[in-house]
Amino acid sequence: MTLQTLRHGWVLTVRDLKHWQREPWAPVIGIAFSVMLLLMFGYLFGGAIDLPGGGGYLPYLLPGMFTLTMLFGIESTMGAITEDTRRGITDRLRSMPISAVGVPLGRTAADLMNSVVQLAVLMAGGLAIGWRVDGSIGSALLAAALLLWLRLAVLWVGVYLGLAIRSEGALIAVQVLVWPFGFLSNIFVAPETMPGWLGFLAGWNPVSATAAACRELFGNPLGTTGGVLAEHAVALAFAWPALLLAVFVPLSARAYRNLSR
Question: 94: which residues sit within 8 A by CB, 6+ positions away?
Answer without folding.
Answer: 103, 256, 259, 260
